[in-house]
Amino acid sequence: GEPRAKYVHSTEKGLLSLCFIDPFSADLDFDVIRELGQAFRMDFLILLMSAVDIRQNFQRYLEDESDTRIARLLDDPDWRNEWAERGMRAKDLVFFILEKFDEAMTKLGYQASTPDESKPVRVHGKGVLLYHLVFYSKHPLAKKLFQAAKTVTDLQTYLEL
């Protein structure tokens, strides 16, 4: 007969899924994360384009109210109003994005994560910020494992090719 595939739903005891999201830009629709997080017992490792896209193009995203890129990323259509009400400036941008993204994730039941718990990734040897890796789980042990992994990766050496 024909081979059969067995589908194991990730809410079964003992099974956990990890979703690594590596978008090309900040054009990431939070609804994707919401749907995956609700349908499966899913942890997320997400590359947030905090500098490469958001910082470089922020003025355009802020001024063009028809651009919904940041609203969809943060799951907050009123993010511009909060930006203005809080008197935020360019130097506050990365913190604001990390904070608002965290707010959206905690609404889904994931453990809160401070900006210090994210992993900034910079151009090697230059210190120029590219993006942040953020990790979200509903289980406290996963957060501890991510923090431990971050400290180990700081010790990696780079090959000059």
Structure characterization notes:
A hairpin with a 6-residue loop joins strand 3 and strand 4 (129-136). The longest helix has 15 residues, at 93-107. The chain contains six helices and four strands, in the order E-H-E-H-H-H-H-E-E-H. It starts with 16 loop residues before the first strand and ends in an 8-residue tail after the last helix. A four-stranded mixed β-sheet has the order 1-2-4-3. It has helices at 30-39, 50-63, 69-74, 79-85, 93-107, 140-153; strands at 17-21, 42-48, 119-122, 129-136. Residues 1-10 have low confidence and may be disordered. Helices cover 41% and strands 15% of the residues. With 161 residues, the chain is an alpha+beta fold.
Provide a short characterization of the protein structure.
With 161 residues, this protein is α+β, with helices and mostly antiparallel strands. It has helices at residues 30-39, 50-63, 69-74, 79-85, 93-107, 140-153; strands at 17-21, 42-48, 119-122, 129-136. Strand 3 (119-122) and strand 4 form a beta hairpin.
